[in-house]
Amino acid sequence: MFFFEHLKTRVKKMNNLIQSDISLKSYNTFGVDVLARRFVQIENRQQLLQIYNEGYFNDNFLILGGGSNMLFTKDYEGLLIKIALKGIHNTIQQNFVFVTAQGGEIWNDLVWHCVSNNFPGLENMALIPGTVGASPVQNIGAYGSELMHIFYSCVAFDTRTGQFVTFAKEDCEFSYRDSVFKSKHKNRYIIVEVTYKLNLDAPLNTSYGAIEKELSNRQISNPTIKDIAEVVSYIRVEKLPDPSTVGNAGSFFKNPIISKNILDRLIVDFPEIVYYNVDEEHVKLAAGWLIEQCGWKGKKLGRAGVWHNQALVLINADNASGEEIYNLSSTILNDVYQKFGIRLEREVNIL
User: Fold this and answer.
1) Residue 68 has what pLDDT?
2) Does CATH number 3.40.50.2300 belong to domain 86-237?
3) Is the confidence at residue 348, as pLDDT, over 70?
4) pLDDT of residue 11
5) Which residues on neighbouring strands pair with residue 257, listed in sequence order?
6) CA 312 to CA 301: how far, in whole Å?
7) What is the C-alpha to C-alpha distance for residues 232 and 131, in angstroms, rounded to an integer?
8) FAD-binding PCMH-type domain location, by residue (predicted)?
9) DSSP assignment of 317-346, as one string?
10) From the centroid of its chain, how far is CA 9?
11) In sequence order, which residues have a C-beta less than 8 Å from that of residue 52 and are 6 or more positions away?
12) For 188, phi and psi rounded to 5 degrees?
């Protein structure tokens, strides 16, 4: 009798945990109104084990952090898992600090946690949308800083085995806006915790042109970590729309990396092309400049559009569907290829 009562209690808990037909409009920064047939919010690790033991990972599922790198083009028919794990703690060892944050923490909150404690390393990535758990998946970066340079390790839940696994930096196979979590291990692991290794003696990175210009405008010659974070935040706000008022996912396209031989050919026809050196053989083109040269900056296609201050950003201009935004991106990809012979890649995940 006790066994059956225990079983009924367990099933009831799962029924309370899993919700049905939940609107995702408030869970994606594009503000696209689609449904998740099943939805669960994870607030502790035990809930992941619970879902695993009930067999939910045997069917289609999707991991959702802040919904800032996602474009839904239709209802999601599987189980959508929202990671809401919270907590940050620090461990100082000699000249380094190891900052460990739970996967559901908002990335910008972590940045300002480090800034307020005078821990350098994250300030150039202030105001990047999303959560801590998504940061290694995308290998985020901005204004001359890359996550892979400060990443130490992460703990992830293996949805195939039901085990929690630790990934060291070399296990993640980081490259430009990519990792094993986005490629060969896509949708297998759920990142529940990330540890960053920050050098307390690291010099501040002010080499990015926009940062130097704004520091000069503010007459700051010896910037602090806080100065850099505030300047980067100001620059991003100037260029990017607030998702709470204009639906967007930040940069929609990757900046393409090409060989210097290809650049030499492009410069003949486009002498003002914007690029940044990557190494001795490669450069990174400014995708926003390419899109702008195709006449898309500030333009709309139906209810979707391109932000007037930054051509890299696609917006939900008037309650657009995900399909409309996707069709706009496809038109832009085609126009850039026709004009420059460059194939842009979407940075945003399409579902």
Assistant:
1) 80
2) no
3) yes
4) 40
5) 284
6) 15
7) 18
8) 32-201
9) -SS--HHHHHHHHHHHHHHHHHHHS----B
10) 38
11) 157, 159, 162
12) -95, -45
* Tens digit of each residue's pLDDT (9 = 90 or more) over 330-347: 999 999 999 999 999 998
The average pLDDT across 1-10 equals 40
175 with 214: CB under 8 angstroms?
no
Type of residue found at 287: A
Q: Locate the DSSP E strands across 143-207.
A: 145-146, 151-158, 164-168, 189-199
CATH number for the region 245-348 comes to: 3.90.78.10
- Mean pLDDT, residues 294-299 taken together: 95
Q: Say what percent of the chain tops pLDDT 70.
A: 95
Give the active site residues. Answer: 177, 251, 347
Q: pLDDT value at position 9?
A: 37
First CA to last CA across the chain, in angstroms? 46
The three-class DSSP label of residue 117 is coil
What backbone torsions phi and psi does residue 95 show, to the nearest 5 degrees?
Answer: -95, 10
CATH topology assigned to domain 1-83:
3.30.43
